[in-house]
Amino acid sequence: MPARSQVPARLSHIAPAVVQSEIRAMSVACDAAGGVNLAQGICDTPAPTVVQQGAIDAILGGRNIYTRLDGIAALRDAIAAKLKEHNGIVADPEKEVLVTNGATGALYATLLALLNPGDEVIFFEPFYGYHVSTVVSLRMSATIVPLTPPDWKLDAQALRDAITDRTRAIIINTPANPCGKVYSREELQQIADVAQEHDLYVIVDEIYEYFIYDDAKHVSMATLPGMRERTITISGVSKTFSVTGWRIGYLTAPADLVPAIGYFHDLVYICPPSPGQYGALAGLTQLAGTSFYDDLKSEHLRKRDQLCEVLTSAGFGAPKPQGAYYIFAEASRIPGANAAERARTLLRETGVAAVAGSAFFREGRGETMLRFCFGKQQADLDRACEALRKL
Ligand SMILES: Cc1ncc(COP(=O)(O)O)c(C=O)c1O
């Protein structure tokens, strides 16, 4: 028998399709070059003190055991209150709210509970790679509907043309990573019409709901007429409270779907981390009604404008996004045969890491685009801007 190291790795046939090599590779290359990482979408600003204290108190108070599989009651109450106040969604905290391991865990459990292998799921392009990879990893198929550049408008006819008799769900991300699109009420209504006509679930990732700029308005799909009963609304505190590593998200869905979603979530994760749930609870309750959410917006608006200006004067096409914390820039002025090469050229010349635009498209597309994250500590953003100015 050959030694283990000589045995070729036997991976599933879809394993190669779900590898997220480029973003990781850029982060490794950035570390090696001692550069500024605007590639990874991790907001590394400090978490609010009350959020930190909530988790610390929970640990010191011995809240170290599994919680109920759907999360602690007080947190579900706080999420229901927030959904009512900020989203206009009325949800029963006992039956219609599930605390999850991030928005990521929420999507995974939702797909396991509601869909079957072979089902088709619609995405809008540019898309968030994890969404598509999660669907592919569950042996479902991703149908991609391109949004129309430069402002990434929905093409309702293209959506209709993509529906087949195996389509079961549409996944939306608003505000969107990577392009910052905030779906308008009219666009959501067009998607809702299709979902109702074809009896589809709509799964909406609203993780960037508090990162909204200018006159854009975040609208939750579940508030549109007739949509509450077919919409799974996913969000979380990773981005809002800068605690991406805590793994606290949540979803709200109709009461007849939540038990099954909760069961699959339990199978994979048992429960979301207990101290993080208490930290999130402290944040949701103690920051409600304060200037926290407005401050978050204005801080990121300032950072958006700072990076957009620098990129524009350096010759990138850098339209200001309406939401989220990424600038999805047209980068053909950076040499390279494709987006990955352009990202490497940029890192070499400036020490700034960005993500190749191709990570958000089907093969062969997005090759002139780069994504820059501005959800960064001010000093790092300043350093990146200074370097980009010298281009
Ligand atoms: C669109 C989108 N959804 C979800 C996540 C991850 O959220 P969570 O940390 O809650 O799993 C990200 C992180 O980059 C994201 O961009």
From TrEMBL:
Cofactor: pyridoxal 5'-phosphate
Signal peptide span: none
Molecular function in Gene Ontology: transaminase activity
Gene3D superfamilies: Aspartate Aminotransferase, domain 1, Type I PLP-dependent aspartate aminotransferase-like (Major domain)
Keywords per UniProt: Aminotransferase, Pyridoxal phosphate, Transferase
Domain Aminotransferase class I/classII large, chain residue ranges per copy: 36-388
One Pfam family, short name: Aminotran_1_2
EC numbers for this chain: 2.6.1.-
Family designation: Belongs to the class-I pyridoxal-phosphate-dependent aminotransferase family.
Name this protein carries in UniProt: Aminotransferase
Organism: Terriglobus aquaticus
